[in-house]
Amino acid sequence: METRIFETKDETGAAAADLAAARIDAAIADRGEANVILATGASQFEMLAALVARPVNWSKVTAFHLDEYVGMPPTHPASFRKYLKQRVADRIPTLKAFHYIDGEIEPPAAECRRVGEILRAHPIDVACVGIGENGHLAFNDPPADFKTEEPYIIVELDEACRRQQLGEGWFETLDDVPTRAISMSIRQIMLSRTIVCTVPDQRKAPAVRDTLEGEVTNLVPASILREHGDCHLLLDTPAASLLAGRG
Protein backbone atom coordinates (compact mmCIF):
# COMPACT_ATOMS: atom_id res chain seq x y z
CA MET A 1 0.00 0.00 0.00
CA GLU A 2 1.43 3.35 -1.02
CA THR A 3 1.33 5.90 1.82
CA ARG A 4 1.74 9.64 1.27
CA ILE A 5 1.73 12.35 3.93
CA PHE A 6 0.81 16.02 3.42
CA GLU A 7 0.91 19.04 5.69
CA THR A 8 -2.76 20.03 5.55
CA LYS A 9 -6.23 18.62 4.97
CA ASP A 10 -6.56 20.67 1.80
CA GLU A 11 -3.34 19.27 0.35
CA THR A 12 -4.37 15.74 1.28
CA GLY A 13 -7.80 16.13 -0.29
CA ALA A 14 -6.41 17.71 -3.46
CA ALA A 15 -3.86 14.92 -3.93
CA ALA A 16 -6.51 12.26 -3.39
CA ALA A 17 -8.79 13.98 -5.90
CA ASP A 18 -5.99 14.19 -8.47
CA LEU A 19 -5.26 10.48 -8.11
CA ALA A 20 -8.93 9.45 -8.26
CA ALA A 21 -9.58 11.69 -11.28
CA ALA A 22 -6.59 10.27 -13.13
CA ARG A 23 -7.79 6.69 -12.57
CA ILE A 24 -11.32 7.63 -13.63
CA ASP A 25 -9.96 9.22 -16.80
CA ALA A 26 -7.92 6.09 -17.49
CA ALA A 27 -10.98 3.84 -17.12
CA ILE A 28 -12.98 6.04 -19.49
CA ALA A 29 -10.14 5.98 -22.02
CA ASP A 30 -9.92 2.19 -21.73
CA ARG A 31 -13.59 1.15 -21.58
CA GLY A 32 -15.60 4.26 -22.38
CA GLU A 33 -17.00 4.51 -18.85
CA ALA A 34 -16.02 4.41 -15.19
CA ASN A 35 -17.65 3.21 -11.99
CA VAL A 36 -16.74 4.78 -8.66
CA ILE A 37 -17.49 4.46 -4.95
CA LEU A 38 -17.64 7.59 -2.81
CA ALA A 39 -17.32 7.75 0.97
CA THR A 40 -18.90 10.29 3.30
CA GLY A 41 -18.13 11.86 6.65
CA ALA A 42 -16.13 14.87 7.78
CA SER A 43 -12.86 13.31 6.58
CA GLN A 44 -14.00 13.46 2.96
CA PHE A 45 -15.02 17.15 2.77
CA GLU A 46 -11.80 18.41 1.15
CA MET A 47 -11.36 15.41 -1.16
CA LEU A 48 -14.88 15.58 -2.57
CA ALA A 49 -14.76 19.36 -2.99
CA ALA A 50 -11.59 18.95 -5.04
CA LEU A 51 -12.83 15.92 -6.99
CA VAL A 52 -16.03 17.52 -8.29
CA ALA A 53 -13.92 20.40 -9.63
CA ARG A 54 -11.70 18.12 -11.70
CA PRO A 55 -12.31 18.14 -15.50
CA VAL A 56 -13.54 14.54 -15.65
CA ASN A 57 -16.06 13.50 -18.32
CA TRP A 58 -18.68 12.89 -15.66
CA SER A 59 -21.29 11.85 -18.20
CA LYS A 60 -19.36 8.57 -18.43
CA VAL A 61 -19.27 7.98 -14.66
CA THR A 62 -21.63 5.89 -12.50
CA ALA A 63 -21.33 6.37 -8.74
CA PHE A 64 -22.22 4.31 -5.68
CA HIS A 65 -21.87 5.06 -2.02
CA LEU A 66 -20.63 2.93 0.82
CA ASP A 67 -23.27 2.97 3.49
CA GLU A 68 -26.44 4.44 4.95
CA TYR A 69 -28.19 4.23 8.29
CA VAL A 70 -31.19 1.92 8.51
CA GLY A 71 -34.36 4.01 8.77
CA MET A 72 -32.63 7.30 7.91
CA PRO A 73 -34.73 9.75 5.85
CA PRO A 74 -32.87 11.83 3.25
CA THR A 75 -34.03 15.00 4.99
CA HIS A 76 -31.97 14.27 8.12
CA PRO A 77 -28.67 16.19 8.45
CA ALA A 78 -26.80 12.90 8.94
CA SER A 79 -28.24 11.22 5.83
CA PHE A 80 -25.47 10.04 3.54
CA ARG A 81 -27.86 10.32 0.61
CA LYS A 82 -28.29 13.99 1.47
CA TYR A 83 -24.54 14.42 1.97
CA LEU A 84 -23.67 13.01 -1.44
CA LYS A 85 -26.49 14.72 -3.27
CA GLN A 86 -25.39 18.11 -1.95
CA ARG A 87 -21.64 17.60 -2.27
CA VAL A 88 -21.47 15.54 -5.45
CA ALA A 89 -24.61 14.96 -7.52
CA ASP A 90 -25.90 18.54 -7.37
CA ARG A 91 -22.46 19.84 -8.35
CA ILE A 92 -22.07 17.41 -11.27
CA PRO A 93 -25.38 17.57 -13.14
CA THR A 94 -23.87 15.60 -16.03
CA LEU A 95 -23.10 12.55 -13.87
CA LYS A 96 -24.31 9.42 -15.69
CA ALA A 97 -25.93 7.88 -12.60
CA PHE A 98 -25.74 7.83 -8.82
CA HIS A 99 -27.08 4.69 -7.17
CA TYR A 100 -28.03 5.64 -3.62
CA ILE A 101 -28.74 3.30 -0.75
CA ASP A 102 -32.26 3.86 0.57
CA GLY A 103 -32.11 3.20 4.30
CA GLU A 104 -35.88 3.50 4.65
CA ILE A 105 -36.70 0.39 2.60
CA GLU A 106 -38.28 -2.39 4.66
CA PRO A 107 -36.93 -4.92 5.13
CA PRO A 108 -33.40 -3.46 4.72
CA ALA A 109 -32.23 -6.81 3.35
CA ALA A 110 -34.32 -6.09 0.25
CA GLU A 111 -32.39 -2.87 -0.31
CA CYS A 112 -29.11 -4.76 0.12
CA ARG A 113 -30.21 -7.09 -2.67
CA ARG A 114 -31.45 -4.30 -4.93
CA VAL A 115 -28.38 -2.12 -4.88
CA GLY A 116 -26.12 -5.17 -4.72
CA GLU A 117 -27.45 -6.44 -8.03
CA ILE A 118 -26.74 -3.06 -9.64
CA LEU A 119 -23.24 -3.01 -8.18
CA ARG A 120 -22.44 -6.49 -9.47
CA ALA A 121 -23.12 -5.21 -12.99
CA HIS A 122 -20.74 -2.27 -12.52
CA PRO A 123 -17.22 -3.43 -11.58
CA ILE A 124 -15.63 -0.62 -9.60
CA ASP A 125 -12.69 1.27 -11.09
CA VAL A 126 -12.01 3.64 -8.18
CA ALA A 127 -13.14 3.41 -4.57
CA CYS A 128 -12.70 6.60 -2.56
CA VAL A 129 -12.83 5.59 1.09
CA GLY A 130 -11.73 6.65 4.57
CA ILE A 131 -10.88 4.98 7.87
CA GLY A 132 -12.97 5.32 11.02
CA GLU A 133 -11.65 6.15 14.46
CA ASN A 134 -12.22 2.50 15.41
CA GLY A 135 -10.45 1.29 12.27
CA HIS A 136 -13.67 0.58 10.41
CA LEU A 137 -13.88 0.50 6.63
CA ALA A 138 -17.28 1.71 5.45
CA PHE A 139 -19.52 0.75 8.40
CA ASN A 140 -17.76 -2.58 8.91
CA ASP A 141 -16.92 -2.14 12.59
CA PRO A 142 -14.60 -4.57 14.40
CA PRO A 143 -14.79 -7.50 14.33
CA ALA A 144 -15.60 -7.06 10.63
CA ASP A 145 -16.84 -9.81 8.36
CA PHE A 146 -13.91 -10.53 6.03
CA LYS A 147 -15.63 -13.52 4.40
CA THR A 148 -19.06 -12.55 3.06
CA GLU A 149 -19.23 -12.06 -0.68
CA GLU A 150 -22.52 -10.18 -0.56
CA PRO A 151 -22.00 -6.66 -1.96
CA TYR A 152 -24.06 -4.99 0.78
CA ILE A 153 -24.81 -6.23 4.27
CA ILE A 154 -26.70 -5.08 7.38
CA VAL A 155 -24.33 -4.24 10.23
CA GLU A 156 -24.60 -3.34 13.90
CA LEU A 157 -22.74 -0.13 14.77
CA ASP A 158 -20.52 -0.29 17.85
CA GLU A 159 -20.34 2.47 20.44
CA ALA A 160 -17.00 3.83 19.20
CA CYS A 161 -18.45 4.26 15.71
CA ARG A 162 -21.58 5.90 17.04
CA ARG A 163 -19.56 8.25 19.25
CA GLN A 164 -17.54 9.29 16.21
CA GLN A 165 -20.75 10.28 14.41
CA LEU A 166 -21.83 12.24 17.49
CA GLY A 167 -18.42 13.91 17.76
CA GLU A 168 -18.52 15.02 14.13
CA GLY A 169 -21.72 16.90 14.87
CA TRP A 170 -24.22 14.84 12.86
CA PHE A 171 -26.43 14.08 15.90
CA GLU A 172 -27.42 15.88 19.10
CA THR A 173 -27.09 12.91 21.48
CA LEU A 174 -25.65 9.40 21.36
CA ASP A 175 -29.16 7.98 21.66
CA ASP A 176 -30.01 9.73 18.38
CA VAL A 177 -27.32 7.81 16.47
CA PRO A 178 -28.79 4.72 14.76
CA THR A 179 -27.51 1.32 15.81
CA ARG A 180 -27.82 -0.35 12.39
CA ALA A 181 -26.72 0.47 8.86
CA ILE A 182 -26.46 -0.95 5.37
CA SER A 183 -22.78 -1.16 4.45
CA MET A 184 -20.76 -2.24 1.46
CA SER A 185 -18.91 -5.37 2.50
CA ILE A 186 -15.14 -5.63 2.94
CA ARG A 187 -14.74 -8.08 0.07
CA GLN A 188 -16.76 -5.85 -2.25
CA ILE A 189 -14.55 -2.86 -1.47
CA MET A 190 -11.46 -4.98 -2.07
CA LEU A 191 -12.73 -5.89 -5.56
CA SER A 192 -12.17 -2.28 -6.65
CA ARG A 193 -9.38 -1.85 -9.18
CA THR A 194 -7.95 1.14 -7.31
CA ILE A 195 -8.60 2.29 -3.74
CA VAL A 196 -7.91 5.89 -2.74
CA CYS A 197 -8.10 6.16 1.06
CA THR A 198 -8.13 9.71 2.45
CA VAL A 199 -7.55 10.08 6.19
CA PRO A 200 -7.00 13.49 7.80
CA ASP A 201 -7.16 14.56 11.48
CA GLN A 202 -5.35 13.75 14.71
CA ARG A 203 -8.34 11.76 15.96
CA LYS A 204 -7.64 9.15 13.25
CA ALA A 205 -3.95 8.72 14.23
CA PRO A 206 -4.43 5.58 16.40
CA ALA A 207 -6.47 3.88 13.67
CA VAL A 208 -3.87 4.81 11.03
CA ARG A 209 -1.08 3.39 13.18
CA ASP A 210 -2.98 0.15 13.79
CA THR A 211 -3.91 -0.13 10.11
CA LEU A 212 -0.31 0.19 8.93
CA GLU A 213 1.78 -1.24 11.74
CA GLY A 214 -0.29 -3.96 13.37
CA GLU A 215 -1.34 -7.33 12.00
CA VAL A 216 -3.97 -7.66 9.31
CA THR A 217 -7.03 -8.48 11.36
CA ASN A 218 -10.77 -7.99 11.35
CA LEU A 219 -10.31 -6.24 14.71
CA VAL A 220 -8.79 -3.41 12.64
CA PRO A 221 -10.90 -3.72 9.50
CA ALA A 222 -8.93 -1.15 7.46
CA SER A 223 -5.77 -3.25 7.87
CA ILE A 224 -7.08 -5.44 5.03
CA LEU A 225 -6.23 -2.60 2.65
CA ARG A 226 -2.58 -3.66 2.91
CA GLU A 227 -3.50 -6.76 0.89
CA HIS A 228 -4.90 -4.76 -2.04
CA GLY A 229 -2.72 -4.49 -5.14
CA ASP A 230 -3.40 -0.82 -5.86
CA CYS A 231 -4.33 0.99 -2.66
CA HIS A 232 -3.17 4.52 -1.89
CA LEU A 233 -3.36 5.94 1.65
CA LEU A 234 -3.21 9.73 1.82
CA LEU A 235 -2.72 11.27 5.25
CA ASP A 236 -2.25 14.70 6.71
CA THR A 237 0.52 15.25 9.28
CA PRO A 238 -1.73 14.90 12.36
CA ALA A 239 -3.20 11.60 11.12
CA ALA A 240 0.33 10.26 10.57
CA SER A 241 1.68 11.48 13.91
CA LEU A 242 1.73 8.10 15.67
CA LEU A 243 3.50 6.20 12.87
CA ALA A 244 6.92 4.77 13.68
CA GLY A 245 9.66 7.33 13.18
CA ARG A 246 7.33 10.32 13.38
CA GLY A 247 7.11 10.76 17.13
Account of the protein in words:
The protein is of the alpha/beta class. It has one domain: 3-Layer(aba) Sandwich (Rossmann fold). Helix content is 30%, strand content 19%. The chain has helices at residues 9-31, 45-51, 80-87, 108-120, 159-167, 186-190, 205-213; strands at residues 2-6, 34-38, 61-65, 67-69, 97-99, 126-129, 152-156, 180-184, 194-199, 231-236. The strands form 2 sheets. The chain has a 7-stranded parallel sheet, sandwiched between helices. It has a 3-stranded antiparallel sheet with strand order 4-8-7. Helix 1 (9-31) packs across helix 2. The radius of gyration is 17 Å and the shape is globular.
State mean pLDDT (0 to 100 scale): 95
Structural class: alpha/beta
Stretches where pLDDT is under 50 for at least 5 consecutive residues are none
The CATH class turns out to be Alpha Beta
Topology:
Blueprint (H helix, E strand, L loop, with lengths): L1 E5 L2 H23 L2 E5 L6 H7 L9 E5 L1 E3 L10 H8 L9 E3 L8 H13 L5 E4 L22 E5 L2 H9 L12 E5 L1 H5 L3 E6 L5 H9 L17 E6 L11
Parallel strand pairs: 1-10, 2-3, 2-6, 3-5, 6-9, 9-10
Antiparallel strand pairs: 4-8, 7-8
Helix pairs in contact: 1-2
